Protein: Alpha,alpha-trehalose-phosphate synthase
Amino acid sequence: MQTRLSDLGDKRYQAWGKAFSTEVYPIGIDPDEITRNAKGPLPPKLAQLKNELKNVKNIFSVERLDYSKGLPERFLAYETLLEKYPQHHGKIRYTQIAPTSRGDVQAYQDIRHQLETAAGRINGQFWSAWLDTALLSEPAF
Structure:
C-alpha cells in the first residue's frame, strides 16, 4: 500500500488521511554544559567520592531506570565477579546511577525494588569498611 505524505506547513503533515505534527526532542547530553562544569571546582561530595575511590577500580553505569536496560543483569554480573574472584573484593566498586523515569508505573517500581534488593544483598555478602555496590536514583553531587 502506498501513501503520499503531504506537507501542510508549520511542521504539520498528512498521511493515510490523518494530520499530525512533528517536533524535535533531543535526547542526550549538553556538551557545552559538561565543558563548563568540568572547568569548575568539584562539588564537596564529588571531591570526597573521588578521594575515597582513588585506589579502587570503578565501574560506573548511568542509565535511566528501565526494564529494557539490563540493570539487574549488571548487578548479577558484578556479584558473580566478586564470588568467583575474591581477590578483587575491596578493589573494584560498581556504582549504578539510575534516575527514575516513570516512578508511577508498577513495572518501574518493581525494577527499583529489585535493584535495591540486589545492592543490599551484594553489600551484605561482601561487606567491608566501604560499600561494594552503590545504587543512586540521581547523581548525589
Remarks:
- The longest helix spans residues 106-125.
- The beta strands are 6-9, 12-15, 18-21, 57-62, 92-97, 133-136.
